[in-house]
Amino acid sequence: MQRIAVSGASGKTGWRIVDEARRRGLAVTALVRPTSTLPPELEGADVVRLQLTDEAAVTAALQDCDALVIATGARPSIDLLGPLKVDALAIRPQIAAAKAAGVRRVVLVSSLCSGRWLHPLNLFGLILVWKGLGERWLGESGLEWTVVRPGGLKESEENLEQEGLVFSGPGEQESDSIPRRLVARVCLDALDTPASIGRIVEITSRQGAAATSLAAWLGA
């Protein structure tokens, strides 16, 4: 794998995926909205500004890419339709664009409890419901997909090496948190782990937990 695309690349998880990918020697196409403010970490990256609902534009941006990581996510807003637009409706054109561009491998960053109706997070525009729909559309796409469902996302990157990852299948974790940097690493690990194809992987982390990797967990 030589080049990946990351949608939502200006977001707090997205730019970390771009950063980690570049550290691993990958070329990256960073997909961002026309009005997005670019974080310093995207300096020097191949940035493409577009609307993710513009299938033709996304298809063009995905040319020469080997994989797509979808790291978009609705932000808190007075627009209660935001989660529907971002976490569901914007997923379909990205799936179609990946197919049109010949990109078979897709990783989607979702959330613990995705798809549930009865959850406090749904007070924000039914966000978990729409995330679940986006996951379902990807699962039905025929692409080689992995869904990564992280717990509560933390900005801090202190003592990352002491954070042990906790992996599970869908619906097995309810809460707990994880640094965004570790989520980024797991997304990239998924691209290098064929056993993750067709899997929903829930991840959290905690200090002192036994160190393990995605490949080791899937192998077990």
Task: Characterise the protein shown here.
α1 links the parallel β1 (3-7) and β2 (27-32). α1 packs across α6, α2 (55-61) crosses α4 (91-101) and α3 packs parallel to α5 (127-139). The strands form 2 sheets. Strands 3-2-1-4-5-6-10-8 form an 8-stranded mixed beta sheet, sandwiched between helices. It has a two-stranded parallel ribbon with strand order 7-9. The radius of gyration is 16 Å and the shape is globular. It has one domain (3-219): Rossmann fold. By secondary structure, it is an alpha/beta fold. Helix content is 30%, strand content 24%. The mean pLDDT is 95. The chain starts with a strand and ends with a helix. The chain has helices spanning 14-23, 55-61, 82-89, 91-101, 127-139, 180-191, 214-219; strands spanning 3-7, 27-32, 46-49, 67-70, 105-109, 144-150, 152-154, 163-168, 177-179, 199-207. It contains 7 helices and 10 strands.
